[in-house]
Amino acid sequence: MGFFKRKSSGDDTDAQGGALGGSASTAEVQLNPGLPPLPTEFDALVEFAGNHIAAQQLAHSGAWGLGDAERFDVDLQAGTITWMFTDRNMMVTAPAQLLGTWNPGDQTFLWGWAHPSAPPGTAVAAQAVKDWADQNGVVELQDRKIECDNDTCYSIAGIASPIGDLQGVYRFDAGGPWAYVGFGNVTLNPVDPT
Question: How far apart are alpha carbons 36 and 122 in whole angstroms?
Fold first, then answer.
């Protein structure tokens, strides 16, 4: 059973949808080409990350329909995220890890590297952000918790995408807190409708 299991709806996720397209064979999609050097000033880095993950989300939306899944499952123990598209007879899977959670009550983001619900070894990209912040003196990213609204949190969590070599960030309401999950290369798998 997954760590998070929810039926996807427009209210629970923020990814934009699009047509699936392509063949019914298994395929891998990689969307993280070489990037320019990252800014070390916090606000500039947050803006860069927000633009970066917006471009990733748009590409995934157009390539295989991110945001249109009928349901999804995140299993942190297995390190996977799966999106189901029964109307298209398609299942999309990717390696996944917890970047962190956003608490709407106190408007804070808790990094995955410090999260009590993150199984050991499942917050590698979040830890990479902390290590990078330590090396580059970005003090705003060195604490386990950051005060921010949910939209800013999306960009802050998105910093893990270029630093942790992720292919995207998926956020969803986990029944109170919002979970931010980073994912790697996706694999498109046909599903037999019978």
Answer: 27
How many domains does the chain fold into?
1
Q: At residue 93, does pLDDT exceed 90?
A: yes
Average of per-residue pLDDT across 47-61: 95
Residue 142: inside a domain, yes or no?
A: yes
Using CA atoms, how far apart are residues 44 and 129, in angstroms rounded to an integer? 15
pLDDT of residue 77: 92
* Greatest C-alpha distance within the chain: 55
The two three-digit tokens of residue 143, written as one number: 């604490």
* Residue 11 included in any domain: no
Containing structural domain, residue 57: 40-190
Residues forming beta bridges with residue 71, ordered by sequence position: 7, 84
- pTM of the entire structure? 0.82
